[in-house]
Design a protein that fits this description.
With 257 residues, this protein is an alpha+beta fold. Helices cover 18% and strands 59% of the residues. The protein has helices at residues 2-32, 50-53, 99-108; strands spanning 37-49, 68-78, 83-94, 113-120, 123-136, 141-154, 158-164, 176-183, 186-202, 205-228, 233-256.
Length: 257
């Protein structure tokens, strides 16, 4: 009888232990049904829109910005399969469409200077953002990612040089001169919307397609530095604002782990 009871005890214990293992396996499966960390890197096109992209020389709001390069790094922490939080760094350059500005500049100096040379650097934008991500899909994943963040915007520096034919500052005809127009960086808090998809390529690695749109305003306290070959120099201060709106289209790799 005692052997029968022992055998029954072992059978019941084995059944309880097996059920416990099954529950643990189910919990483990649920936990492993999604990977909590997502890291992505993108490179692509930064395309200005609105006043920022306008080349209307008669409109003071025109930014004359052209399409440039954007790079982006994004880390996401998934709370569950469909929802998580993100941290993002973005840097974008916008070249200046300078033909109209150069023509206007040369017209302004017509009759006063010759051998005019005009060049302008790029606008530069850096962003740090925090947001949340909503994702759907098991294989290919589609997502939207609203963010809020801090941005720093660098004005496009302009350089002008030439030789005087006449002037009203006492420099002789034939004296060379240069002017450098600089705008200090401005910072702003902004909101933006990311969206895109991850397409699986190997294991937990995906090809990522990302879209971002943002719009904000920056104020600059700039100055113009003047100097010539006769030792004359000076600085003129000025303030202005610039509306900046753009969308970024990027392609890269995303890895879940």
């Amino acid at each position: 009888m005692k052997y029968l009871l022992a055998a029954l005890f072992l059978l019941v214990s084995s059944s309880i232990f097996s059920q416990a293992l099954d529950k643990e396996e189910m919990v483990a499966q649920r936990r492993s049904s999604f990977l909590q960390n997502r890291l992505s890197f993108n490179i692509g096109l930064a395309n200005p829109t609105g006043d920022f992209a306008s080349t209307n020389i008669l409109d003071i709001n025109s930014g004359f910005a052209g399409p440039g390069l954007v790079i982006k790094a994004n880390y996401g922490y998934m709370v569950n399969k469909n929802f998580g939080f993100t941290f993002d760094f973005t840097n974008a350059n916008f070249p200046v469409e300078s033909e109209e500005i150069e023509e206007l500049t040369k017209n302004l100096y017509s009759g006063f200077a010759t051998d005019l040379v005009y060049n302008v650097e790029n606008y530069n934008l850096s962003q740090l953002t925090f947001g949340f991500i909503l994702s759907i899909g098991n294989s290919t994943k589609f997502y939207i990612n609203p963010v809020v963040g801090y941005s720093s915007f660098r004005f496009a520096e302009e350089n002008i040089s030439g030789v005087y034919t006449q002037n009203n500052i006492g420099a002789p005809v034939g004296a060379s001169f240069s002017e450098r127009v600089v705008g200090d960086n401005d910072e702003d808090v902004f909101i933006a919307l990311n969206a895109g998809m991850d397409v699986p390529v190997s294991g937990n690695t995906y090809v990522n397609f990302n879209f971002q749109y943002y719009s904000t305003d920056y104020d600059f306290d700039g100055y113009l530095n003047y100097s010539d070959s006769q030792g004359n120099s000076g600085q003129i201060g000025y303030s202005f604002g610039q509306d900046v709106a753009a969308f970024h289209l990027g392609i890269g790799l995303a890895h879940y782990f």
